[in-house]
């Protein structure tokens, strides 16, 4: 009996592959091409307009010799670390509380999720008002008789980034909570019953059973938080404008200022390239461990 030959692998789902060609071409031209163009021109002395006068690593030497850039990196590291940890922890704790089938769960879920419906600009302006020492939290507490109370993070260069962090956490924690709650609701009820029968404490059930089962949810949450960290530019512009002085600068604002205010495209391209490099350093090892490990196991 004749054996029918299997079609070549590249023939499978051929119509879907053809339909994806425009998207792939757009990604290559716009994203990959634009990225390559940015990297190449970061080695030039382009000012208002791009020009092909290469100056080697001069732009990078100026970049890393700039106090504004160093402060931007420090602020992003502080904001990113605290935002990642607190958003995950607080979001998961809120989800665990709501998962106890409390009364008015829908109301609480809506209240916690509502800030995410606002833009970062609106969030920043709202918290600029709340943290304003003349009519915000400080003024309210002092009006209650506590005249020595001081809470003005946006006007203190040493802690201004933490004032921005408060607004960022308020904005994104509700979404993380909803993701975690969806993951908790997907846990089989028999697992909870078995843990109770075996006398396993609730915290151990979460730590050693539930959280490992929600690994995919946590990965998704980390990706969303990371995108919020990048968009901290909006919060900075709305709340502080980079001040006091340059104490709340972030890399994205540095790039914008270099390219559009200082009209120094070469410096802006160099800063953009360093931001891209930092993303690659984080993403590539994670992607290798996440997907390369699965391929080896298969």
TrEMBL record:
Family per similarity comment: Belongs to the binding-protein-dependent transport system permease family.
Principal place of residence: membrane
Subcellular location(s) per record: Cell membrane
Boundaries of every ABC transmembrane type-1 domain copy: 73-288
Protein name: Sugar ABC transporter permease
Membrane topology: Multi-pass membrane protein
Keywords on record: Cell membrane, Membrane, Transmembrane, Transmembrane helix, Transport
CDD domains, per the entry: TM_PBP2
Lineage: Bacteria, Pseudomonadati, Pseudomonadota, Alphaproteobacteria, Hyphomicrobiales
Record-annotated membrane-spanning stretches: 21-43, 76-98, 110-130, 159-184, 205-230, 269-289
SUPFAM superfamilies documented for this protein: MetI-like
UniProt cross-references to InterPro entries, sorted A to Z: ABC_transporter_permease, MetI-like, MetI-like_sf
Short name of any one Pfam family annotated for the protein: BPD_transp_1
